[in-house]
Amino acid sequence: MDTELNMADLDVTEDTPVLDTLADITAVSLERCDLEPRDLMLARIAALTAVGAPPASYLLNAGAAADVGITLKDVQGVLIAVAPIVGTPRTVLAAGNITRALGYAVAVAEAELEDAS
Question: What is the pLDDT of residue 1?
Answer without folding.
Answer: 47
